[in-house]
Amino acid sequence: MKNICTFIFLTLFSFTAIAQSDTTSRILDKTETDEFFNDAFKKKNLITFPIFRAYTYKDKSGTYYVALTESADSVNKLKDTVNNKVKAFNFKVDKGVSLKKWEINDFKTPDLKGVEKETSIWFWTKYCQFKDIDGDGLVDPIIVYGTFGPNGYDDGRAKTILFYKGQKVVIRHQNGVLDNERKTQVDLTFYALPAKIQDHVKQILATMVEKKHAIFPSAYEEKMSKKVTQIGN
């Protein structure tokens, strides 16, 4: 009986490993990026900003290409590129035809009466991921981007976007020097996601705090924990 159970366990483990091995992702180099996102393709799909980074990933539903684009409006005194807008595109390649699956558009907060509220917006690629988080054979793309305020990260914004089986789930966060300036808005659909995905996203947010890219109020952390506990029950 013990041997039978062991065999079943190993069989299931092997099946899971095979299923997960079918899910891959990688960053495209410049040559690959220019080949797929050529001038004609960009014109057809209204990709007008420079491509900052491009990815491809494959899962059981097909092969996909993602472009993260930034407006690159100017260069500041520190020789950093300043962006007023960002856009992301996801295309599925099916029988030689590229179909757009989703698009992200955002921009830095406009100046108010000549006062600059935010200096730039850009993709935080160190947090962007294309992984099969819950092991269902489908990649769960996570796109993260944010802004600089007058005090850098301390009063900028951060936005985390997850695509789960075609559903867009967003966590919006405003950093602030003072406690009452910090605000976090979580889509209610986040709490209906599998616990493994919720935990994964929360770990990304925790890393953002550790790296001083985000400051979350304790009330938000307590709320997240309570919500997850309630879903689990």
From TrEMBL:
Q: Which InterPro entries match?
A: M949_RS01915-like_dom
Residues in the signal sequence: 1-19
The organism's place on the tree of life at top rank: Bacteria
Keywords, comma-separated and alphabetical: Signal
Name under which the protein is recorded: GLPGLI family protein
Q: Which organism is it from?
A: Pedobacter cryotolerans
Recall the taxonomic lineage recorded for the source organism: Bacteria, Pseudomonadati, Bacteroidota, Sphingobacteriia, Sphingobacteriales
